[in-house]
Structure formats: structure tokens, C-alpha cells
Automatic annotation (TrEMBL):
<feature type="domain" description="Cupin type-2">
    <location>
        <begin position="63"/>
        <end position="120"/>
    </location>
</feature>
<dbReference type="Pfam" id="PF07883">
    <property type="entry name" value="Cupin_2"/>
</dbReference>
<dbReference type="InterPro" id="IPR014710">
    <property type="entry name" value="RmlC-like_jellyroll"/>
</dbReference>
<protein>
    <recommendedName>
        <fullName>Cupin type-2 domain-containing protein</fullName>
    </recommendedName>
</protein>
<dbReference type="InterPro" id="IPR013096">
    <property type="entry name" value="Cupin_2"/>
</dbReference>
<dbReference type="InterPro" id="IPR011051">
    <property type="entry name" value="RmlC_Cupin_sf"/>
</dbReference>
<dbReference type="InterPro" id="IPR052044">
    <property type="entry name" value="PKS_Associated_Protein"/>
</dbReference>
């Protein structure tokens, strides 16, 4: 029969072994450093994940395609530059330090006159082109 202290010690050992095999429970993400790792545009890179949501950084310039995300809202946060988001009934300019949430199913088209750096917050598996496909569809789940 085990005494209480040996059972507690065994549980603590198992928990420690489990935690040390996992990624650290906390992790600092430096966005400037992450943006320095790539130069291609319209190719989102995952920098963090929380629950089933991914935080992606992306460089953009010029025009994207009209698209929507039927299953989820999409959050676009501008880190640097100015983002234009066109909707069928108007547009919004989003500046550095601002963000916009595009509701699920709403058609939109993003663009930037000069390069802008964005962070996207969306569920894992969301394609950047929604269901439109085409040459602008980025490979999903690329981590940097």
C-alpha cells in the first residue's frame, strides 16, 4: 500500500514530465523580429496559437481578391502602414495600431497602396481567400 506522500510525489513527477515535454506555457512573440524573417507578400505566417485561434503576420501591397469567410469572423490588425478594406457598400481605412473585425459571410477586399504589415486573428484552418481559391491562396499553417 502506498502512503499519501509517495503518491503525491509520483503525481508531481508525472506532471513535471508532462509539462517538460510540451512547449513552454508562456512565450513572448516579437512582431518586428517575426516580420524580419520573410519578405513575400500575401503569405500569412503563424506566430502563435491560442485555443483553436491562430495569430498570423502578413505583408501586403496592392490589391487582394474579393472573398468572404462563411464559417468565421476575421480580425485584421494593422501593425505598420495603412490597410484599405473594401466592402460592397463602402470602405474603411485601418491605420497602424487599429483593427477591424470583418463579420462572417461579409464580402471584402483588402489592399494597401504601399506595403502594410498586418496581424490576422482567425481560427486554425481558415484560408486567406475564403472559398474563392486561385493563385493568391496561401499555404495554411506555416509557422515562423
Amino acid at each position: 500500500m502506498h502512503n499519501r506522500s509517495s503518491v503525491t510525489a509520483a503525481r508531481r513527477t508525472m506532471l513535471t514530465a508532462f509539462i517538460t515535454r510540451r512547449q513552454p506555457m508562456y512565450q513572448l512573440v516579437n512582431l518586428a523580429q517575426k516580420f524580419s524573417l520573410f519578405s513575400e507578400q500575401w503569405q500569412p505566417k503563424v506566430v502563435a496559437e491560442m485555443n483553436d485561434y491562430q495569430f498570423k503576420v502578413v505583408r501586403i501591397a496592392g490589391d487582394f481578391i474579393w472573398h468572404s469567410h462563411l464559417e468565421t469572423d476575421e480580425t485584421l490588425m494593422v501593425v505598420e502602414g495603412v490597410l484599405r478594406v473594401d466592402f460592397r457598400d463602402g470602405h474603411v481605412l485601418v491605420k497602424a495600431g487599429e483593427m477591424i473585425v470583418v463579420p462572417r459571410g461579409v464580402e471584402h477586399k483588402t489592399s494597401a497602396e504601399t506595403e502594410a504589415k498586418l496581424m490576422l486573428i482567425e481560427p486554425r484552418g481558415v484560408l486567406n481567400t475564403g472559398h474563392e481559391g486561385g493563385e493568391r491562396t496561401a499555404v495554411n499553417d506555416v509557422w515562423i
